[in-house]
Amino acid sequence: MPGGYSKAVDLKPHLIRYWLTPAAKESEEDREEKIADVCAVYHEAPARAARGERTMSTDEMTGVQALERAAPGLPLAPGKVERREFEYIRHGTRTFIVNFDVVSGQVIAPTYGPTRTEADFLAHVQRTVESDRAAARWHFVADNLDIHCSESLVRYVAEVSGVTDDLGKKEHHGILKSRASRAAFLREPSHKIVFHYTPKHASWLNQVEIWFSILMRKLLRRASFLSVADLEAKVLAFIDYFNRTMAKPFKWTYQGKPLRV
Q1: To the nearest 5 percent, what fractions of the chain are helix, strand and coil?
Q2: N- or C-end of the chain: fewer Cβ atoms within 10 A?
Q3: 48: burial class by Cβ within 10 Å (0-12, 13-18, 19+)?
């Protein structure tokens, strides 16, 4: 090539860079409104706590594997990194549904089991609310998963909030008609339980995701589990240890900048 090598034709077909096409069904205005709402929830959480209200950042960690290493690892040594056995035994998986208390920084009323269904999430919310019956109101930050705006969840929130209006019929009419109408009802600020939904593809807005990364680094990445029961026990023990020794609220910056512990 005249004049030497040109980067203009430096094709690298062996490399791929991922990118994400913006969701077509969510306008920029809706996205910004949801971001502002979630950030406001975090900023207002301490003042709400003084009035007896609780603020939870909630999500599921699914498919957590109970892997047992086939042989013990080799510890660190001068000039050598820790070595881990490549072969492992699968003992099954568990789903953990976790509440991160935005004000205290603790993990509250975790749920664990083999599935993540509408019934599982409803039972989790019910257990969470029952854990503090004196709370004046509950705020849950959650993503847009269908089970987070289900018919059964709407009926439960209506019951505890004293709503006696006809809720309608799913896929036909009324509050229960569509996913959008159910989510609008669950966002109603006058209810005893209020949901605040993150925009699509915005997991960085949900503070519990930061806690999941702590769980992964501190426990799951290096542990070996003898069974799913062993996995459950060790995760619950870590939660207890975290709450006693590490828990503190995340410092949140409104513009969506990274969280700092």
Answers
A1: 35, 20, 40
A2: N
A3: middle
**Tokens found for residue 33:** 């409104």
Backbone angles phi, psi at 162, to 5 degrees: 75, 25
* 49's tokens: 């706590």
Q: 86-118: string of b/e by CB count within 10 Å (b at 16+)? A: eeeeebeebbbbbbbbbbbbbbbbbbbeeebeb
What was the pLDDT predicted at 88? Answer: 80
For residue 101, report the phi and psi dihedrals to the nearest 5 degrees: -75, 115
Distance (Å) of CA 26 to CA 29, 128, 156, 215:
8, 30, 27, 32
Q: What's the start-to-end Cα distance of the chain, in Å?
A: 53
Q: Return d(Cα 166, Cα 195) in angstroms, integer.
A: 20
What are phi and psi for residue 232, nearest 5 degrees? -60, -45
As a residue count, the chain comes to 261
Strand, coil or helix: what is 109? strand
Give the model confidence (pLDDT) of 231-253 as tens digits: 999 999 999 999 999 999 998 87
The DSSP-derived string for 13-26 is TT------PPPTTS
- Which residues, listed in sequence order, are joined to residue 153 by a DSSP beta bridge? none
More confidently predicted of 204 and 231: 231
- 246-to-57, 60, 207, 226, 241 alpha-carbon distances in Å: 17, 21, 15, 26, 8
**Dihedral of alpha carbons 23, 29, 30, 34, sign:** positive
Euclidean distance between CA atoms 37 and 40, whole angstroms? 5
